[in-house]
Amino acid sequence: MRTLFFLIQKEFLQIMRNKTILIMMTILPIFQLIVLSNAATNEVKEVKIILLDHDLSETSRALTRKIMANEHFRLIDQLFSKEQALEKMQANEADIILEVPGNFEREFVRGEKPAMQMLVNAINGQQATVGSGYLRNIINTYNRDIFSEIHWMPRPATSHSGIDVSSRYWYNPMLRYTDFMVPGILAELTALLTIVLTAMNVVREREIGTIEQVNVTPIKKWQFIIGKLVPFLCVGMFIMTVGLTVGKIVFDIPMVGSLGLLFVYAFINLIAVLGFGLLISNFADTQQQAIFVAFFFILIFILMSGLFTPIDSMPTWAQYLTKANPLAHFIAVSRKVLMKGSGFLDLTSEFIYTTILAIIFNAAAIWSYKKQE
Amino acid sequence: MIKVFRAFIQKEIYHILRDRRTLLILFGMPVAQVLIFGFAVTNEFKNANIDILDQAKDQTSSKLVRHMTSSGHFNVNRMLVSEKQVEEGFRSGKTDLVMVIPADFSKDLYTYDPAQVQLIADGSDPNMANALVQYARVMINDFQQQEYKRPANPYQVNIETRMLYNPLLESAYNFIPGTIALILLIISAMMTSLTIAREKEQGTMEILLVSPLPPLLIILGKVAPYAILSFIDAVLILVMGYFIFGVPVTGSLVLLLCLCMVYVITALSLGTLISTTSETQQDAMMKSLIGLLMPSTLLSGFIFPLTSMPEVLQYISHIIPATYFIEILKGIMLRGVGLEYIIFEVSVLLFMIVAFLTLTWKKFKIRLE
């Protein structure tokens, strides 16, 4: 026990002495949290539109005015030649070209239902689908309101009034995107930094040769591993605390559930990811190797964690894979506890999976750590 | 001199080839990323779980329930019996949307009072909540159209949509260029900065500096192998994109490869610059993480649309090489443009190379303190 105490003391001294790690623990998470949470929005705010109105009639003008009144649309040009418009599209200056054919008004008044043409620059998928969706909605509304818009039209008699759909958004009535992103990013950062720091730390000892000195002492394998685990566990918890504080101060994230529960879960999850970091370090001889192996897995972990894209939308086989991803559980728990106030009973599956992962990773790390080369 | 330099490059290549694990990762990373983006991750909402609280329990309401599930977008998770259960599903994360059909639903449907259907969404994921509510509204409207034929309104406007450059809205058209930009940056810039920092940390840089080679050639010799590796990776991703996902190269392939090389050189000069300012590998890694990887992933327009971001971040995105390179790739690969359309982006990259190299030259110390 005393041996372990001294080992842990040594690690703490080394961490506190190392400027890089100190920066990684404080400035990096704050910086990342602020930038990431602001950048990570899937809303489409600006769709650039070029208008080709070949009709220039009262009706076409009224309709295009109506379309351009939408706050998401920005008219960048009004042209009369399709070639010119397409050229601008090719230079990526426009997302949508809206073309009103000649005779639009005449056909409209005759009830011939004229068609507008919408050409969408579909490379940026989101801009394309969301933008064209907005446009379609506007046209639909226009068609629906046409009776009230145009007073000289005969009104068809309606016999009923249909369905009124009302919608409410629980836990986030304003649909604030940062409320959703900050808890997720916080979990991701905490896990990611601890993996990288541990993997690099052990390998660095190997690279410099100090690990030999530790190996010739009567220190046992498990003592060495736990001696590495405990300090970085504290580092992880510290990052988590810093992140939560920044999240509260800068983004005013909701904290509905019990923070204690979140910290207990974070503790288990950190043990799992630390074990994973140690496991990586056992298979690397240089820091460069360690970073790249860690990176490889982190990339997969992040992409498959539900941080940016919903896990429910993945194919079934991929959803099963996420069970082995500690990050996915961490992000889910962080969001549920902070936003919905989920309790322990709502999170039993996450707790169970994470505990199993913690045991597997650490057992593998202890087993694969060799004292003699 | 030439002989010495060639021997030096050979030594560096041996170093890299000897390290099998890193090599495996270097080629495994792009492959894994492309496959995950292609087969596992999607931004669309499929099979959302919906709970239904049907207080009417008659023919019309069950017809509506059937109609909701017919689309394949919604799975009915549970039929609820009381309002109390609504929260349970949300808190355990098992349900995304709850539809409440009121008791007097069918009666209302055929009278003058509109029937009230309520949708309750889990707003903790705003994107999903929004999409699901919009979608459910469309479905309910459809149902209404079917239930009682409205007289057609002759005065209406139709709209025809054509999706240019990506008619099937394949997500691969977006992630293949993004992945190329990102992987080249990781390999070129991170590897370079770490390699040079490592020589410094271990003290072997001094040995190199007293060799007959001028410092510039030493750096060049160190980065050249990584340039070759990155280039192979770029081709690998292009080939995967073409054969697995059918992402074409509409424009000139030669131009594309030349510009890949320009971007690789930009990334390498950036990596060298980072290494001159760091003393240890940890230091170099941290600077690469903050300065390169994170901004390039998030602020290059690869994952999130730039126009939606706060203005400050949009300015930052303009100093990131990946932003310009993704633009170049999309231009050549998908819109098939020639050099004249992307001349601005190319000039920016060239300017960046000159700037980074000048800074490196100024910072690179031949003498050690």
Characterization of this structure:
- The complex is a heterodimer of chains A (373) and B (369).
- Chain A has helices at residues 2-17, 19-39, 58-68, 82-90, 104-109, 125-149, 177-208, 210-215, 221-251, 259-282, 287-303, 316-321, 326-340, 348-368; strands at residues 47-53, 73-79, 96-100, 115-121, 163-170.
- Chain A has 373 residues and is an alpha/beta fold.
- Chain A has a 4-stranded mixed sheet, sandwiched between helices.
- Chain A is elongated and about 95 Å long.
- Chain A starts with a helix and ends in a 5-residue tail after the last helix.
- In chain B, strands 2-1-3-4 form a 4-stranded mixed sheet, sandwiched between helices.
- In chain B, helix 7 (172-202) packs antiparallel against helix 9 (215-245).
- The longest helix of chain B is centred in the middle third of the chain and has 31 residues, at 172-202.
- Chain B is elongated and about 95 Å long.
- Chain B starts with a helix and ends in a 6-residue tail after the last helix.
- In chain B, 43% of the residues are buried.
- The mean pLDDT of chain B is 84.
- The chains are: A alpha/beta (373), B alpha/beta (369).
- Chains A and B meet through helix 2, strand 4, helix 6, strand 5 and helix 7 of A and helix 2, helix 4, strand 4, helix 6 and strand 5 of B.
- Strand 5 (163-170) of chain A pairs parallel with strand 4 of chain B, so a sheet runs across the interface.
